[in-house]
Structures are given as structure tokens and as C-alpha cells.
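Quarterly update, task 2.4: 6-O-phosphono-beta-D-tagatofuranose-bound model.
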Amino acid sequence: MSKIEELQAKIGNKGPVRIEAGLGSQPKIVVATDQASAEIYLHGAHVTHFQPRDETPVIFLSSTSVFDGHKPIRGGIPLVFPWFGPRADMPALPPHGFARTRPWDLESCDVRPDRSVQIVLTTAQDETTLRLWPHTFSLRLIVIVSDALDVTLEVKNTSQTSFRFEEALHTYLAVADIRKITVDGLHGSDYIDRTDGEKRKKEEAKELGFAGETDRLYLTSAAKVTVHDPVLRRSIIVEKRHSDATVVWNPWNQKAAQMADMGPDEWQKMVCVETANARTCAVELAAGATHRMSTRILA
Ligand code: TA6
């Protein structure tokens, strides 16, 4: 039995949900309800598509992303765990940790009474992760597709001692033109400007606009963030729970040109608004304890 047949047999005949061979023949879960459509790859438990009915896609996916079951997917919602960006003490390790490059397992798939679909994916430590990070853990990604997209990353510490970790739902939102959008919900928050020597600053803009490379880690940002897109005449709302940090990122033309997996000029069509806990917001998790960080994305 192929992996795809095995997964299809596991979920059975679930009406709005099916398993398909995605790009690079990688298994993906396809959800199509009367409220929205969504796609999730098992590689990295990676949501690559979300589109409410009567809307254009809300999530951006690069047309040149690699789908080889090893490299991270470019676009969608990469999962960042257990460190954010390059690891401070070991910069040679994979940036953003290993959750986004792991093969995840399908735990369950349910159509709920309100016709939303809940998919749960899991992974845990193995020899590879223990070489990179010496802790045992289990992760669950809970995705609910309704007219909104709800994503929860659950981290359980299965070891005998506490550990500290960083995390992010590194969400690539689809926009018509990065130069025309504005982002609100960040005014007054302290941030680390990663394009300016990691200087600590305070967000003075009531509405953040974009005119060049932007890479900001907001450290006092638990409230919802809204992306206003006047060209598409829509606002994307990113609500957060148990997340004190928000990252806003666009590579702009020069950085994007160095990225082999970002399609030509596609940097103009995306903005990352990441629900996160990083740096001073990193999570300290006691032995046996569980932490859940969630985002709800609606347009
Ligand atoms: O979250 C923003 C960021 O850390 C940027 O610094 C940027 O490089 C980006 O993530 C993408 O990282 P990646 O490892 O996916 O190329």
C-alpha cells in the first residue's frame, strides 16, 4: 500500500476530506467544504492553502517552492520549533529548528457538527532531533477549517526536566501588492529590528506600511493584527492566543532574488505575520507540562 492509500484508508470516506499526491508526490490532505478549502502537507505539518468560499487565497505559496520531503516549503505556514531564526549558540544548525522539516503523522481527521473539519498531526523526538536538541517532547498541530483557519501548535514536555523553547506559526499571507498594504495592531509595541543590527525600537506607526526589507520581531504583541489590502478590498485578521510575540517580514527585491525558492517578483505578493513566542518571550515548560499557542486567520 502506498503512503497515500494508507492515509486514505486511515481516514476512511470523509466527504470533504481526501488524501492526494501533492507537489513532488508528497502526501497532502485536501479539505473542501462549503465554507472553505485548505491543504496540509504531512511534511512539516505544513498548511499550504486556505481559501474561504468567495475569496481569493488568503495564504501565499511560492511557485518555486521545493517539495522534496526534506527542505522546508516556502510559503504557507512553516512551523518554527524549538528555536527561532538561526540558533544563537550554534548558528550552523538549521534556522527555525526542525519541526518544519519532519515527517508528521496523521492522528485524526473529523468532520464536526458545525461542518468544520479538524485535522490533528503529531510528531515527537527521534535520534535526529536529540542530536540537535537534547530533550524529549511531543508536538501536535491542530488545524480547524471553517470559514476561518484555526491553527494550534501544542508542545508537551515528555522529559524529566523543564526546557525552554521558541516557536512560531510563520504564516505567509497573500496580498495584492506589498507596497499598498498596511498592518495595524502593533502600535506602541517594542520590537527588534532585524534589518538594523537587531536594535530595539518602539513601533511609532499607527498603521505600518512597507517601502523596503522589513524583519521585525515584536516582543510585546499579544493582540490581534490586521492586514488591510486596498487592492483586494479585504482585511485579513490574525488573532492570537498564548503568543506574546509577532514577527512581520517581507524580504523585498534584493533578498528575495537570493532565494532560489521564491518565484520572480513574488515577494510583492506576500507578507509574513507570525504568531510567535521568541527571544524574551520564549516559553519555559516544566516536565510533563503542555503549552498551546494558537492563531485564527479570517478574511
Ligand atoms: O521570520 C522572519 C525570518 O526569520 C527572516 O529573518 C527570514 O529570513 C525568514 O524568516 C525566512 O527564513 P527561512 O529560513 O525560511 O528562509
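Highlight for this quarter: The chain has a mean pLDDT of 97.
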